[in-house]
Amino acid sequence: MYRYDDFDEAFVRNRVAEFRGQVERRIDGSLTEDEFKPLRLMNGVYLQLHAYMLRVAIPYGTLNSRQMRQLALIAERFDKGYGHFTTRQNIQFNWPRLKDIPEILSLLADVEMHAIQTSGNCIRNVTADHFAGAAADEIEDPRPTAELLRQWSTDHPEFQFLPRKFKIAITGAPNDRAVTKAHDIGLRMVRNEAGDPGYEVIVGGGLGRTPMVGKTVRDFLPKADLLPYLEAILQVYNLSGRRDNKYKARIKILVHETGLDEIREKIEAAFEDKKRAFSGAPAEMVAAIEAAFAPPLFDNTRSLAFDRAQDANPAFRSFVETNVAEHKNPAYGIVSVSLKPVGGTPGDATAEQMRALADIAERFGHDELRISHEQNVILPHVRKADIPAVYEALREAGLATANIGLVSDIIACPGMDYCALATARSIPVAQAISTRFDELKLEREIGPLKIKISGCINACGHHHVGHIGILGLDKAGKENYQITLGGDGTETATIGERTGPGFDAEDLVPAIETIVETYLELREDAAETFLQAYRRIGAEPFKQAIYKEEDEARAA
């Protein structure tokens, strides 16, 4: 993985020192909250419902054991003993005291981490496929590109005050695990007919108040042209994006209102100007970045231990079926660690669990961990012979839940328990759904099913692209939950369809249960997934089922 050079180190340390002085002035009253707000946002500090929140960047979701242990230390010393991993592959600490945040940032700097550009109207943390560098279906590791974009975008003087926040995601595989079509810019690594590497460039995706699937503006962009082309997109957006209404300020609105063809023409014209002035990224810098992501030295020794352990232990076999993915090296597997225990808070990990993950990665995983946008932790390189030992270590740490991709592997934002913007709770809803389906013992029979929950219209829980999406709203002072069906965040991205009127909190879980029961009744066979069945039969059978039951309940 990438290591800081002298410039990175000095830059981050200077930012910490600068913010320390700003915090001191806020505490002594020299700065008002209004004056302090843009300064704290530039350093990842939000004022949440009950306390300040610090959002720490984990670039493209990659970190090592030393960094994970430091996050555990921070959780223990300055928070309530846990951290919350987010859908942008970051970690949030929900309870730090303002006076302690400069010290936290200093501790982060000690392990080459920071909180810069995790908030504000700038280019946010660049996200990537959490299986990058390991996936069997990968065309090319996207992380060198993601790191190049991190360096290019950090403190870029032209892009610090955009019309609205700006998000970039990149995948190196045809199977999109980075939700690229729901980003302001999505990059998919491809090869042209000659076999040259490049990018499909997607613009104008996003969720929130106005969900839209991104549109392709370039089918193939050579790798050498990436930076000037992205600068062209940002320039068009910066000059033409709306600043009169924050709800209409994202690039998706500009693309929609202007039209794809006209936007493409403007981007291409700006690109020609940028390209003439662009001398190319320094070859030495690019080579150093690429070298930092060289694959580890794999141990290709074959062993029967993996197969024998599955035969001997049904619980381990179930874990392998859901939580272990194919690696590009046949002697290895990709282990996904669920942060979704039954009845737990999706994405939360205790300090003890973080340390356990660090120990496992150091001993068995080439000292590498990933955070997924699905709020789980990935061990990307684990020798198959070691996976039984990894499973036992995870089990001892309370991290061996075998539910990746199943109904209890729920994405949920913090909701009204923490967030000042939320209009309803998310965490209790996720906990109730998880608990109910554990009681029913139907997860395996149901198969792949993605439930995603947002506590407000900002859609931090990605509910629009959930197979079942849940949006919490305030209705006359009471929590009310809208349901969408058929969303998809992969290469076949689709915005879910709203079923109709929302449900009160007490009626929501029965409605979700009815939707799942309807799927089980109507699917062609056990191999047909929920999403496949939905696309075949449409929304109407599900609508009839949930609103019939609601009407009957009211009548009773």
Rounded to the nearest angstrom, the distance between the terminal CA atoms is: 61 Å
Low-confidence stretches: none
Let me know the number of strands. 21
Per CATH, the class of the largest domain reads: Alpha Beta
Percent range of helical residues: 25-40%
CATH topology of the largest domain: Sulfite Reductase Hemoprotein, domain 1
**What number is the mean pLDDT?**
96
Q: How many distinct domains?
A: 4
What radius of gyration results from the CA coordinates? 23 Å
User: What is the level-2 CATH architecture name of the largest domain?
Assistant: 2-Layer Sandwich
Shape: globular
Q: Please, how many helices?
A: 18
CATH superfamily of the largest domain: Sulfite Reductase Hemoprotein, domain 1
Report the sheet with the most strands, covering strand number, pairing sense and barrel closure.
Answer: 6 strands, mixed
Derived structural class: alpha+beta
Strand content: 15-25%
